[in-house]
């Protein structure tokens, strides 16, 4: 069953993102929100992990990006921006949600 | 009470909206500024995200407190140390930060930069030179 993984902590401060990446399987998706959005930005160690993950879709919550002053140009290639309704759609689309808090 | 002026440093290590630390630090800095001490702030680790320009919190129903950093100069808080390595690790440069200034009344209110870019090594020395350090 494919999973939607969510991460809401900064990859610099907590191991949530790294643990998520170590457990996410092909065909699943990762949604980054709150301080998790920093993992979606270029020029970071997290960006290299996003780029290296094959067969995994990455999403980031737009309102949390904007709040932090991060433009979409800062995002690692392949990361798609969603709004709150998109968050709900993803949760419904995947078999279950796995939260890395 | 002693009139001795002490050197106070506030260490900011957290991103702005995921926790209350950044907001609380600002509150304490503004209170402390009323006591005529020699106040400095340091932004390192995720703390550098606090002063990224262009913050817009309309979509997350939280107060955008980033304009407050621009007001620090009016409270004679004019030294904002930013750690270079912390910026680099986050794919940021000083150009991604707010243009924070203060006005020097001794030089006909000339505008001066509040941000002082320092290396990790230099920041260690700044910390060493303080009387009191508050961590957020």
> How many domains of chain B, as an integer?
1
Largest sheet of chain A: 5 strands, parallel
Total count of helical runs of at least 4 residues of chain B: 4
Principal-axes shape call of chain B: globular
Rg over CA atoms of chain B: 15 Å
Spatial gap, N to C terminus of chain A: 21 Å
Helix content of chain B: 10-25%
CATH architecture of chain A: 3-Layer(aba) Sandwich
What is the CATH fold-level name of chain A? Answer: Hypothetical Protein Ychn, Chain: A
Low-confidence stretches of chain B: none
Can you characterise this structure?
- The complex is a heterodimer of chains A (101) and B (136).
- With 101 residues, chain A is an alpha/beta fold.
- Chain A has a single domain (3-100), classed as Hypothetical Protein Ychn, Chain: A (3-Layer(aba) Sandwich), CATH 3.40.1260.10.
- Chain A is built from 4 helices and 5 strands, in the order E-H-E-H-E-H-E-H-E.
- Chain A has helices spanning 16-23, 45-52, 62-67, 84-93, and strands at 3-7, 29-32, 57-61, 79-82, 96-100.
- Chain A has a 5-stranded parallel beta sheet with strand order 4-3-2-1-5.
- The longest helix of chain A is centred in the C-terminal third of the chain and has 10 residues, at 84-93.
- The radius of gyration of chain A is 12 Å and the shape is globular.
- The model of chain A has no long low-confidence stretch (mean pLDDT 97).
- Chain B has 136 residues and is of the alpha/beta class.
- Chain B has one domain (7-135): DsrEFH-like (Hypothetical Protein Ychn, Chain: A).
- Helices cover 24% and strands 24% of the residues of chain B.
- Chain B is built from 4 helices and 7 strands, in the order E-H-E-H-E-H-E-E-E-H-E.
- Chain B has helices at residues 21-32, 67-71, 84-89, 120-128, and strands at residues 7-12, 38-43, 79-83, 101-104, 110-113, 115-118, 132-135.
- In chain B, the strands form 2 sheets. Chain B has a 5-stranded parallel beta sheet with strand order 6-3-2-1-7. Chain B has a two-stranded antiparallel ribbon with strand order 4-5.
- The relative contact order of chain B is 0.23.
- Chain A: This is Sulfurtransferase complex subunit TusB.
- Chain A: It holds the Pfam family DsrH.
């Amino acid at each position: 069953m494919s999973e939607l993984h969510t991460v809401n902590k900064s990859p610099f401060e907590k191991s949530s993102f790294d643990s998520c990446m170590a457990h996410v399987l092909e065909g699943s998706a990762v949604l980054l929100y709150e301080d998790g959005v920093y993992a979606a930005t270029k020029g970071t160690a997290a960006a290299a992990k996003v780029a290296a993950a094959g067969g995994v879709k990455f999403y980031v919550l737009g309102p949390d990006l904007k709040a932090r002053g991060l433009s979409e140009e800062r995002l690692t290639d392949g990361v798609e921006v969603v709004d709150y309704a998109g968050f709900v759609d993803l949760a419904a689309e995947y078999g279950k949600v796995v939260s890395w808090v | 009470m002693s009139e001795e002026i002490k050197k106070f440093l506030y260490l900011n290590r957290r991103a702005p909206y995921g926790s209350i630390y950044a907001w609380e630090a600002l509150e304490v800095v503004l209170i402390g500024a009323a006591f005529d001490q020699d106040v400095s702030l340091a932004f390192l680790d995720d703390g550098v995200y606090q002063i990224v320009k262009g913050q817009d919190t309309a979509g997350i129903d939280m107060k955008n407190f980033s304009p407050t950093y621009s007001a620090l100069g009016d409270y004679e808080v004019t030294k904002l140390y930013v750690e270079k390595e912390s910026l680099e690790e986050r794919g940021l440069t000083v150009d991604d930060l707010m243009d924070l200034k203060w006005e020097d009344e001794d030089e006909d209110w000339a505008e001066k930069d509040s941000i002082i870019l320092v290396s990790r090594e230099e920041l260690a020395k700044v910390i060493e030179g303080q009387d009191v350090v508050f961590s957020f």
